[in-house]
Amino acid sequence: MTKYVKKICEIVEQSYSHMTAEQVFQALRQVYPTVVLATVYNNLNRLCDMGLIRRVTQEGMPDRYDRIQRHDHLVCKQCGKLLDVDLTDLTEQFQKQVGVPILAYDLKLMYICEDCKNKK
Amino acid sequence: MTKYVKKICEIVEQSYSHMTAEQVFQALRQVYPTVVLATVYNNLNRLCDMGLIRRVTQEGMPDRYDRIQRHDHLVCKQCGKLLDVDLTDLTEQFQKQVGVPILAYDLKLMYICEDCKNKK
DNA sequence: TCTCCTTTTTAGAATGATTCTAATTTCATT
DNA sequence: AATGAAATTAGAATCATTCTAAAAAGGAGA
After folding, report:
1. Domains and CATH numbers, chain A
2. What is the pTM (predicted TM-score) of this model?
3. At what angle do helices A21-31 and A3-14 cross, to 10 degrees?
4. Residues of chain B below pLDDT 70
5. What is the mean pLDDT of residues A38-55?
6. Which positions on chain D have an atom < 7 Å from some protein CB?
């Protein structure tokens, strides 16, 4: 656990904004001005592998990083904006239905956000 | 609806293998040997916009294209292999829980496939 | 059939997020 | 102080995808 790993983990966990690697980099630079983007990528990968943060992959945009605590996402179909939602955990139910051990699941609910609804 | 759009749509719908753009391109070349990759991308995008096929985005690998008929996916956490599963449609339930109109949802169940389990 | 206009296709360059490589630095341990 | 392992760095490389501008194809009317 280097200072970079620790700080990056903090940044991701404390932000509820699903930051991109670039944004994490900018935030980290406030504290460690000499750090380099590759280090951020390295450590984000490391943290994902360790299961301390999770990666959110969405079509047409860079990956985002999110706290690990179980929750699902509302995704605007127009602009891609991401919102957290707390739905009940369905792992058990899914596992029963498919008959193999489910380690986790990734659920995205597509909708049209207020901004996009108004723009139309 | 050009011949390319039509054929690409057919290829994607009839393959249950979640093809990449490159794979669709290879398949299309069997029929139209002079076609170009950019055309495949153009038309895959068009078909997605029209809602005739859907894109499956997964971390660390090129996008795949899938028939539109409602179904969910089992994803191997190790190798990324994709399997179709037919779970009950939960749109209604989710919509009630979040209180906004849900247009669709994207559900991926993470597991470890037999191959990867054995490799360990 | 010829003309005009729109849409599609093409070739190839450009983009951009992410990874890779090899060198350097850091850090813990002896 | 010396060794070795792990982390960081700079910068090049990768690769899926998009973009650009030009060429080709298609379709509707005269």
Report:
1. 3-66 (1.10.10.10), 72-119 (3.30.1490.190)
2. 0.93
3. 120
4. 120
5. 97
6. 7-12, 15-20, 26
